[in-house]
Design goal:
It contains 26 helices and ten strands. The protein is an alpha/beta fold and 686 residues long. The protein is elongated, with a radius of gyration of 33 Å. The strands form two sheets. Strands 3, 4, 5, 6, 7 and 8 form a six-stranded mixed beta sheet that branches. Strands 2-9-1-10 form a four-stranded antiparallel beta sheet.
Length: 686
């Protein structure tokens, strides 16, 4: 390296910091395959991890594109930083080809150094990733050991080598097209700043605030409308993005005007100089600052929500999957047999219960299971649908939620059957008179709709029996095991209004469908039940029951949560790095261009302490402005995410996730801010 390069090596800190972080994060997320190989996982979880790794590989391509643009942006700053040096080389007789070769080898050396340091850091961080993976998948860490992923190592080198090659070509083109006068005197060119009309800026600022407030309302107060019309979800996104741009655009014209009217503040110390610098930067970077603000907003919401999914899912699973297995079969109604030439015995066998079917195959339930509960859910009782439960509120609900399907068939259950399940689940049990009904549900949106009808004492008619509601609101409850709160409502009715389905001829005479279920826990040492069931094949008209197990539901749910979490963390950190690096590089570029202005301040008597304080304020405001608006956006974005989590997983606090997100922002965004300030001080030093 030349003396000039050695003297300015500190100016490369941001470039190195960005490259090292990029390499390390890229390696960590591509090494998950090797990290999980040492964990004790079941077959289902291994399949989920393979899917996750495949998706992360695709995401890595997108991440590499982001990092490539970021590296090119950073290299532009370094070339601009050294324009005068390259101009001097050309003045002394060095050809552009030789300057390009110097730049080529510098980029190569920087790339090698960043790869070595980044891969070393990534190898260390990937061990912590093993702990995170084990925690997410509740895996055993007995075989934990230091693992270096050869596959991730090679992949990282290949991807970043391609990026560096593109940067080398890009740098060569820039030097080849540069004119000597631009290299020597480019830094003395002043960026033309158009003065905006303050009255126009004020009007646009007020309109932007109003539009943004409406977008906030849509994702909080009007969130239910968004869920009933998916097309409307784009509206607050477009309004929020547009109003963010116009807020920054109008602010660049208002900031200086407002502050100049506060005389004591404006004329204190170097505030007048600092404010003009900030106003100029915002004015020339409206688009960039808008994109950075939105990227920070996405990062904060994605990290906060994804980090809370694991805890939310665990809590939901504990509540919603209380037993080991759920076996079920469908009883067919007479309409489904009309066009089939089944004999009476074939129909009877086909409509046998889960217990009868297993006993036909000499499978002893009592040998494998304990806490056995059998129940039935009825559908299509004379076409009984959701609309039939709404009464006078039907038109109002249909008008308010035009995309809601009101003709969906309702689930109906005898009260004694439900109480058997409630006893097993440790849920509240109920009683009904012969002329009463009630509804149990746990999906919040549907509960609110049903409550509107229940409060009106809406009567229903099932199989020629008129029933009135016992309660004016839904009660919390469910019967089928599930990974989320998706019970839209089960109508509980007195036992005597539904015929006895155990009389097989009866079940095929009436026009309704029945699902027969058996819930149970495994007896000790009998969890090989699935292996036993898989030995049987349907024959003699008896259909083998389907089943859901706690283990399978847990694996699928945890895998989904881990997938969302890892992708969100991966993209969130990359977005955070990109946002921070762009701000840092722009600030360093401004500091390099403004050296003469800081020297002028020294000539008129400003001390180094005053100059450093002015520089700190300038960088602090420049970094905080997009982050502050992103945080305001995030308050409402996180409320929206919390509502979605509430619907899917029940009530869950985001506090821990927000704390973790704050730590990420402090470490990465704060790290870039600190390095930018230190490097800027070095640049403007006398």
């Amino acid at each position: 390296l030349s003396d000039a390069e050695v003297k300015s090596i500190k100016d490369y800190a941001i470039y190195f910091f960005t490259l090292i972080l990029g390499v390390a994060i890229f390696y960590v997320f591509n090494a998950i395959d090797s990290q999980t190989a040492m964990l004790s996982l079941n077959a289902s979880t291994k399949q989920i991890i393979r899917t996750m790794i495949w998706i992360l590989s695709g995401v890595s391509v997108f991440v590499s594109i982001i990092l490539a643009f970021l590296i090119i942006y950073a290299s532009r700053f370094l070339i601009k930083r050294r324009n005068k040096e390259f101009g001097t080389y050309l003045t002394l007789g060095m050809s552009k080809r030789k300057v390009s070769i110097i730049l080529f080898f510098e980029t190569l050396i920087i790339g090698l150094l960043s790869l070595i340091v980044g891969l070393s850091l990534g190898a260390v961080l990937s061990q912590f990733m093993s702990l995170l993976v084990a925690h997410m998948f509740e895996a055993d860490l007995k075989n934990f050991a230091f693992v270096f992923s050869k596959q991730a190592f090679i992949k990282t080198i290949i991807y970043f080598s391609i990026m560096y090659l593109i940067v080398m070509i890009f740098n060569t083109i820039i030097i080849g097209k540069s004119k000597l006068i631009d290299l020597l005197y480019g830094s003395k060119k002043c960026e033309q700043v158009k003065i905006k009309n303050p009255y126009v800026c004020t009007i646009i600022f007020i309109i932007s605030v109003l539009v943004l407030s409406y977008a906030y309302y849509m994702v909080t107060g009007g969130v239910k409308t968004l869920f009933n019309d998916e097309n409307k979800i784009l509206i607050p996104i477009i309004l929020g993005s547009a109003s963010t741009f116009f807020l920054f655009w109008s602010l660049s014209g208002l900031l200086l005007r407002i502050c100049t009217n506060i005389k004591k503040f404006y004329h204190k110390g170097l505030n007048s100089f600092t404010l003009r610098q900030i106003s100029s930067k915002i004015n020339t970077m409206v688009v960039s600052v808008t994109i950075i603000c939105l990227m920070l907003f996405v990062t904060i919401c994605a990290l906060s929500s994804s980090l809370s999914i694991k805890n939310s899912m665990n809590k939901a699973l504990n509540d919603l999957v209380p037993v080991d297995i759920d076996l079920y079969k469908r009883y067919y109604n007479k309409r489904q047999f009309e066009d089939l030439n089944y004999t009476k015995d074939e129909i009877k066998n086909r409509n046998s219960s889960v217990r009868e079917t297993l006993e036909h195959y000499n499978f002893d339930l009592d040998n494998y299971f304990k806490d056995i509960v059998e129940y039935n859910i009825f559908y299509d009782l004379d076409g009984f649908s959701f609309a039939d439960t709404l009464g006078n509120t039907k038109e109002m609900i249909q008008k308010k939620y035009p995309y809601l399907y009101l003709d969906s068939l309702e689930q109906v259950m005898q009260i004694s059957e439900y109480n058997k399940v409630a006893r097993l689940y440790n849920k509240e049990k109920f009683t009904l008179n012969d002329d009463e009904y009630m509804i149990v549900a746990n999906y919040q949106n549907m509960i609110e709709l049903r409550n509107m009808a229940l409060k009106q004492n809406t009567e229903i008619e099932i199989l020629n029996h008129k029933l009135k509601p016992k309660y004016k609101e839904c009660k919390d409850g469910f019967v089928e095991m599930n990974a989320n709160y998706s019970n839209l409502g089960i109508i509980l009715v007195p036992d005597n209004i539904i015929p006895n389905i155990y009389e097989k001829d009866q079940s095929i005479k009436d026009d309704y469908i029945v699902y027969n279920h058996i819930l149970a826990n495994y007896k000790d040492g009998k969890s090989n039940i699935l292996e036993e069931l898989e030995k049987y094949e349907s024959k003699d008209g008896y259909l083998i029951p389907d089943y859901d197990t706690k283990e399978e539901i847990y694996s699928n749910s945890i895998g989904l949560g881990a997938l969302v979490t890892f992708i969100s963390i991966y993209l969130g950190i990359i977005f955070l790095i990109a946002s921070s690096a762009i701000l840092a590089l722009k600030e360093l570029s401004e500091s390099a261009d403004n050296k003469s202005r800081f020297n002028t301040l020294r000539r008129i008597g400003a001390s180094e302490e005053m100059i450093n304080k002015a520089l700190f304020k300038q960088i602090f405001v420049f970094f905080m402005l997009p982050l502050l608006l992103a945080l305001i956006h995030s308050i409402f974005g996180i409320k929206f995410c919390n509502y979605v989590l509430l619907l899917s997983f029940g009530n869950q606090s985001l506090l821990k996730a927000i704390i973790m997100t704050t730590i990420f922002i402090i470490l990465i965004y704060g790290g870039y801010f600190t390095i930018t300030y230190i490097c800027s001080k070095n640049i403007i030093r006398r």
